[in-house]
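Reading a protein record of the kind used here takes little practice once its layout is understood. Each number in the token line that follows is a code from a learned vocabulary of backbone shapes. One such record is shown here in full, so that the layout can be seen directly:
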Amino acid sequence: MMSDDAAGSATAETGLKGAASDVASFEEDRKGIVRTIQGILHEYPTLIPLIVLVVGTVIFAIAAPGKFLSPLNLSVVLQQVTIVAILGMAQTLVILTAGIDLSVGLIMILCSVVMGRTAVAYGIPVWIAFPLGLLAGLACGFLNGLLVTALRLPPFIVTLGTWSIFGALNTFYSNSETIRSQDMEAAAPFLLWLGKLFKLYDIGVFFGLDLPWLRGWVVTYGSVLMIVLAIVLSYILGRTAFGRHVYATGDDPDAARLSGINTNRVLLAVYALAGLICAIAAWVLIGRIGGVSPQAGQTANLDSITAVVIGGTSLFGGRGSIIGTLFGALIVGVFRNGLALSGLALLWQDFAVGVLIIVAVTIDQWIRKISA
């Protein structure tokens, strides 16, 4: 007589006779072309602003032949976007953490006033006045970060409040007085140095090279600093632990904390670094306008956000790059310059920039669906 186990096994074997013996297989999920493009753009967010920049350059080269692509005109575009690009880099760091800083423009103006007025009006040596300006920017940024982390308030509200505070301090310290270029040249010529021009062709001659395609290119030292700063910040974000922590904090702060990241410390460092970058922009601003004005750069806050958004950095944090912001600033400069050379009025230049912002945010929302 068979045991219960043996009987069960025999019954099971009988039931399996004639069953299919093919190995289970699953049809490969083939992505459509739209989904593939969406994935590529999600992985390389800088690709979109680069394409827009190239397309815009081609369009305006055709619309304004012989003018737009002239070395002198492109040099002017580069000079015009330098300050916005540097402020945009500061804004990028903050937006990567899913925040926003509405005070970057006022920090820049305040730091320029501290540098210029301390050196000229009070006669303090520039080797003291200049670091004081940098320290002022660092302190303003640190204050923003401290309020965001300690009070747990939305960055929008915090920086809206400090925007008014820094504006009041700017008016108080400057007495609403402008410092002229002649006075700056006499007391603190170092502060004007980033506004000085040099010819790229002369660099080739210095090294014994004849590069005729560099003729006509005139660049400021401020533009060179912008490029160097972009390279340094890109390295920090892409190659260091701090950079990875910035992205992680912006993408999912709760997950970042659970993985051992001190998100409050990251936010403090980001806002402080952003303030320091604004102080560097202040130095560039002094050289750009040839003096100090408490009214300079009034639209810098919105311009910096525009460069960041058009450059492909997500307003929801966790995705974007410094190089993308540089492209974004160049896109705005190229479109404004190209439309002006094409004979369109200023209002249509603003219209075009507004369209670019809406399109950029729409594309960002579409790309984010890939991670949903």
In short: The beta strands are 197-199, 218-220.
